[in-house]
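Look at a sample.

——
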Amino acid sequence: MIRNFEIAVSPEIAVDSKQLKSVVSQRSGIKLSEINHVRILKRSIDGRSKKVLVRLKIEVFSGDSKFEKEIIAVDYKKVDKKSQEVLIVGAGPAGLFAALKCLEYGVKPIILERGKSVEERKKDIATLSAKGILNENSNYCFGEGGAGTFSDGKLYTRSNKRGNISNILKTLIFHGADENILTDAHPHIGSDKLPKIIQDIRKTILSHGGEICFDTQVCDFVVKDKKVIAVVDQNGKKIPCKTVVLATGHSANDIYEWFYNNNFSIEAKPFAMGVRVEHPQALIDKIQYHESIRNPNLEPATYSLTAQIDGRGVFSFCMCPGGVIIPASTTEKTLVVNGMSNSERNSPFANSGIVVTVNVDDYSNFDSFGALSGLRFRESIEKHFFEIGGENYQAPAQKMYDFVKGKTSTELNRSTYHRGLISVDFNKILPDFIALALQKAFYEFNKKMRGFLTNDAMLIGLESRTSSPVRIPRNEKFQHLDLENLYPCGEGAGYAGGITSSAMDGVAVIQAMFGE
């Protein structure tokens, strides 16, 4: 017999299969001797009461029912020069998963990536972190794997309607991810492990006949009769194509400018902007778990916060428990920060983007730039923050309680941001509507998490790459409105936000292309 249950147990029991089986027997009435296996389907931490519990959805195999571990396999077909081809621009999650889906159909994917392989990309990121030297095509945003590769590898998404989340996770497991990503309520891989998984995805694509061209930036599209017949790289080389998947990510400003300058449809859209907030991880643990010292059987605590401030959304984004803050600029003389954490999440600090919704009306001063108005607005603030920080990607910073009181911090806390910090008053350098919304939101967040608003926490800015300020519109067949063989997808097109939803969008585009 196979029966499903939902139970809540202590953290100690949740990690001990023998104890868990005993508790299941007691609560279900099934004799312990008859239980063959307890399979965890979903795992989440419940800290709503003073006693922290782990909630489990489980499947109990008893009697004649035997548990057989699922063997995850994908039918990737060999392709060659005779196979139908799809040109994919960008090797982030949307582009890579589009390529993998092509192989399932027996279609040859050819990926053009402006950045480098993860191995070479690591060197450029290390140079940026250590010396403040930015490679505009190989950094925390650009390169194999996209922005998520070095940003914790969070896989949680609410985009259930976009596609099959389980298939995305199973594909990652097939390429080396831990199987617990299928059961954890908020799965993640870690920036230390995700690069190896990206390398294994590359090996799958290449070993089945696909192609990946690094250091190949698409700078122009050759259009004839409403179709892209070739793309042009940075060296002027024309690459013929019959179908193009555009998966360039949320920071490929030059792609948006090409559409704008050539009068093809794009549109400004809302996005979000704010700061990174860094707390001691021990403080977040204490708030969430109600104990001065975290139970060793619990992971570093996370949080997810939202508030409506004067009709405007304020929310936490890309929360990194046990993480670090990193320089995430993609163009020189601009300053952007992001967060990342390794699989063990063992930094003594937690950080999260706390961002404010920016509506199209908020950047009306940039209306002369049309569909690029949000992009120009974002650039202007990123440049301003760089000027304040200086030439070495130092970041403006302020203690949280000082910020809500409008006081420049005389001293700054220790931080994981290695490029250095400059004490500022964010009320004077952020747009007024963002600063005011953040102030009010921090008070609201403190009601939900007592102790959140404190000078033990610090604001570091600028967090501006939560999503794209531009959308590349497409029809119900995923085709661009003006170019019928071009398929915009992922974050860069404005249709996803994060690794999982971007991957699902890449898969959905290929499915639409081949009629599934």
In short: The mean pLDDT is 94.
